[in-house]
Amino acid sequence: MPVTVFIRYQLDPFKRSQFEEYAKRWLTIIPKCGGDLIGYFMPHEGTNNIAFALITFESLAAYEAYRARLRQDAEGMANFHFAEENKFILAEERTFLRKVVL
């Protein structure tokens, strides 16, 4: 069963440009590692410290395989370190969703 990972980020609102740089890097890394990236979504109007990402996988097992590949990917690890060093992500929540079908 396909699963979509919904990631909610709480950002430092004064570091949104760093988060955008971080998100842009994932646009090539995630597909390379096996995720079907729907997209990253930045604050535009209203709340200025919340961003989202949506990534779909064939199954929860495919997600786990993706996570293992990501930990071996030099660009992916560099992006994780970029986020840790710059502390623009204050909190991150992951929700695993399935599509409602008839």
TrEMBL record:
This is NIPSNAP domain-containing protein. Transmembrane segments: none annotated. Residues 6-100 form the NIPSNAP domain.
